[in-house]
Design a protein that fits this description.
326 residues; MetI-like fold
């Protein structure tokens, strides 16, 4: 198992290099450094000297991968790849195109994102599993059919609808929670609770149907029939037998959500005014700030790969066949 994890860690290095390379190529395929400089300086009445000064001050004056005007190692080190992409591998994100320190911004904004994403993930997973198991109790009956229709309807509604309804009813009409904003510390729950409720409500349709399909595959297995024959109730069978055996695909699904724990939710953070990393990423895209975009893409890739490795470890804990190497 240790050898397998080490192999996965080593294989992540070329993967991260490729992601960095693709991000660099895609961004400069859309915008040249001169176009980026003019966009930040303002396109009107900008001289070539002003553009050159901006490029030099932001390390954009180099060619992409190879500098023919430099000698020796300078042909590689005096390039955009070396100055913009290589520092990411030591988690040095540098300065944004607007002049702010990205490292400081990430450290500051990660806490609002985590304050929103962690309860949203935990409450969402628990709620979806409980609802899906409730439907399984009445599978193929009227309650199950009504529940599936409800899930399909919930899936068909735009997330913006849940946000608008939540803000109108809970914040504006009932005045239970603030419409938007955020403060740090223990009072953060007051601003995070409504986005969490909206996020759980918006994902309950997809989550319930997915968990129901996973658990339904296990309900008809022989070990389940054996548990029923021993006198266990349907709830006991679902909690003690079915759910533990369905943990592997559930863990796989949760891995996909792990980057959002750090990067936050773009829509929720934007509409509820939470200064997290999701909002940070959205603002960078709107402002065409390549430094922030490449940093966040790289960070999200690292978190996703870490999530996959943690899943391998979780597999070994949950499934003895993985631990024994069979």
């Amino acid at each position: 198992m240790t050898r397998h994890i080490l192999k996965r860690v080593l294989s992540a290095i070329p993967l991260l290099v490729g992601i960095n390379l693709i991000t660099l190529l895609l961004f400069f395929a859309v915008n040249t450094p001169e176009a980026i400089a003019r966009a930040h300086l303002g396109n009107k009445h900008i001289t070539e000297e002003q553009v050159h000064v901006w490029l030099v001050s932001h390390d954009y004056q180099y060619p992409l991968f190879y500098n023919a005007n430099a000698s020796g190692l300078g042909a590689i080190t005096q390039t955009l790849w070396w100055h913009k992409a290589m520092p990411l591998f030591i988690f040095h994100f540098g300065m944004s195109d607007n002049g702010s320190d990205i490292d400081t911004d990430i450290k500051t904004r990660m806490w609002p994102s985590l304050a929103l994403a962690i309860p949203l993930l935990l409450i969402g997973v628990i709620t979806n599993i409980v609802f899906s198991m409730f439907l399984l109790i009445f599978r193929y009956q009227l309650v199950d059919k009504i529940g599936n229709i409800f899930c399909v309807l919930a899936m068909s509604i735009s997330p913006l609808f849940y946000i608008m309804v939540g803000q109108y009813l809970v914040a504006r009409t009932w005045l239970w929670l603030p419409v938007s904003g955020y403060v740090g510390g223990i009072d953060a729950w007051h601003f995070v609770l409504l986005p969490v409720i909206v996020g759980v409500a918006g994902g309950i349709g997809v989550g319930t149907r997915w968990y129901r399909s996973l658990l339904l595959e296990e309900v008809h297995q022989d070990y389940v029939r054996t548990a029923r024959a021993k006198g266990q109730t349907e709830w006991q069978v679902l909690w003690r037998q079915v759910l533990p055996n369905a943990l592997l695909p559930i863990l796989t699904g949760i891995v996909v959500i792990i980057p959002s724990l750090f990067l936050g939710s773009l829509i929720l953070e934007s509409f509820f005014g939470i200064p997290g990393l999701g909002n940070y990423m959205l603002e960078a895209i709107q402002q065409q700030d390549y430094a922030i975009v490449r940093s966040m893409v790289f960070l999200g890739s690292v978190l996703y790969i870490v999530g996959l490795i943690l899943t391998d470890i979780a597999y070994a804990i949950v499934d003895p066949r993985v631990r024994l190497g069979s």
